[in-house]
Q: What sequence folds into this?
């Protein structure tokens, strides 16, 4: 067999084009997975890119150097169960419901928070089924959070950030327990929250 014949056969195999008979079954293999993927993203979890500097320096730690973004795992499995101060959650923005926001829980229902600018009142008593969220950035002008729109209802919370996936130097679980906040909070009891029955 000559070399030209070998190359022509190899070339024919490399230029494989699926026939109609093979192509028509592709949707039958792909379509059943679409509901499973949607269910997984809505109820189990998804990855979330952290944009902006509101969570700097805890997330996007190199934001001031190269504008890079952190990629995090957002667990959507029962997101409002056992919430604690310091946890990082994702929620729908009260000001723009189509926007997913990532912030840290500072106070729970029943707590009293000493607010920061631009909040017009010095203290806020957190009502039942609400949380107070803030960004980690020391500059309060870099974060639109509860100091702007007040306590958020629990039903806006869509997930909890549990792991950093990218960049590699930050890869691993998010240790929210180590957080020491700047905002002064007087811890209350849930049954002391306004609106608690």
A:
């Amino acid at each position: 067999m000559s070399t030209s014949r070998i190359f022509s056969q190899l070339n024919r195999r490399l230029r494989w084009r699926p026939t109609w008979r093979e192509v028509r079954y592709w949707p039958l293999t792909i379509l059943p997975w679409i509901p499973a993927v949607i269910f997984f993203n809505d109820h189990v979890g998804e990855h979330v890119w952290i944009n902006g500097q509101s969570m700097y320096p805890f997330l996007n730690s190199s934001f001031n150097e190269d504008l890079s973004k952190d990629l995090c795992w957002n667990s959507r499995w029962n997101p409002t169960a056992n919430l604690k101060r310091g946890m990082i959650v994702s929620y729908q923005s009260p000001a723009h419901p189509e926007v997913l926001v990532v912030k840290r829980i500072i106070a729970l229902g029943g707590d009293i928070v000493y607010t920061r600018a631009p909040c017009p009142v010095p203290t806020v008593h957190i009502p039942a089924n609400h949380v107070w969220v803030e960004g980690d950035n020391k500059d309060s002008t870099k974060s639109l959070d509860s100091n702007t729109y007040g306590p958020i209802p629990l039903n806006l919370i869509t997930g909890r950030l549990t792991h950093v996936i990218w960049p590699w130097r930050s890869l691993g679980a998010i240790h929210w327990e180590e957080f020491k906040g700047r905002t002064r909070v007087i811890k209350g009891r849930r049954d002391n929250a306004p609106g608690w029955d």
